Amino acid sequence: MDDVVSLDPDLLELARTARTVAVLTGAGMSAESGVPTFREPGKGLWDRWSPAQLATPEAWEADPELVWSWYLWRARQVRLLRPNDGHRALARWARTARVRVVTQNVDDLHERAGSEVLAHLHGSLFAFRCSACGTPYPGDLVDGLGLDRAEGLDEPVRERPPACPACGGPVRPGVVWFGELLPEGAMERAAEAVAQADLVVVVGTSGLVQPAASLPLIAAGRGIPVVEVNPEDTALTPHATWSVRAGSARALPRLAPGGGAEPASR
User: Fold this and answer.
1) How far apart are CA 222 and CA 173, in angstroms?
2) Which of 105, 126, 162, 182 has an alpha carbon 20 to 30 Å from 118's alpha carbon atom?
3) What is the mean pLDDT of the segment spanning 71-82?
């Protein structure tokens, strides 16, 4: 495959001049850094583990040690990974425009690349809080794992959740489980960012998971240009102004101003 991603000159010009950009990212963006997805056939996390055992309030009530250990294992794995060129391109773009990042991903790769995230729609692996009183946990529960230490991370190791310093309740992962509400205010902030944008960039999402899938349609309904960055067609494709058939690590460095992209024909 040719490494050069051709972008429409009108899209490049809009990216250069846009004052406010809303960026919506999904699992495909993190997958390019090595973060496993949930549903990819043969590789997804749900091929190895059951959501009913790990990703519901009922699972937590039934076996908090199992759930805690699995999510801590995932957090430690993420710490071994690095932001890709797409993450870094978005951080660079924010130097010349107001770039508002909304993500469905629960990792911290955007933040480690230098971006400020407006909303983690599905929570974060690193936003631990008390399961009883909701108080955020103040310490580093990932043990300050260095990026060069991979030993011992092939499988989860059963650990007991720490106690909340405020009430003594068990600390839980800060992710959104099936059957739970999104973090308070997250969807409202995301919808506002999309409605106020000059350009909406949708990266690595299937366009199927609600309510996040509705966000690009808000922009399309208002006549705001939407560019989809994804190697394959998705449910969003018919509504996108432009569709860039490449992954984030190849496409975003060319789309973001200052990345050295040369205008190319459609």
Assistant:
1) 37
2) 162
3) 90
Q: Which fold has domain 9-255?
A: Rossmann fold (3.40.50)
Phi first, then psi, for residue 136 (nearest 5°) are -60, 140
Instruction: Indicate the helix (H) or strand (E) that contains 22.
Output: strand 20-25
Give the pLDDT confidence of 19-43 residue by residue, as tens digits. 999 999 999 999 999 987 654 544 4
List 87, 110, 122, 239, catalytic entry: 122
Q: Is 120 a catalytic residue?
A: no
Question: For residue 4, how far is the Cα from the chain centroid?
Answer: 25
| Block residue for tokens 């580093």 | 140
As a whole number of angstroms, the distance between CA 6 and CA 228 comes to 14
Compute the chain's Rg from CA coordinates: 19
- What is the reported pTM? 0.88
Structure token pair of residue 252: 């975003």
For the chain, give every domain's residue range.
9-255
Class of residue 217 by CB neighbours under 10 A (exposed 0-12, middle 13-18, buried 19+): middle
- State the helix-helix crossing angle for 9-17 and 248-255, rounded to 10 degrees: 70
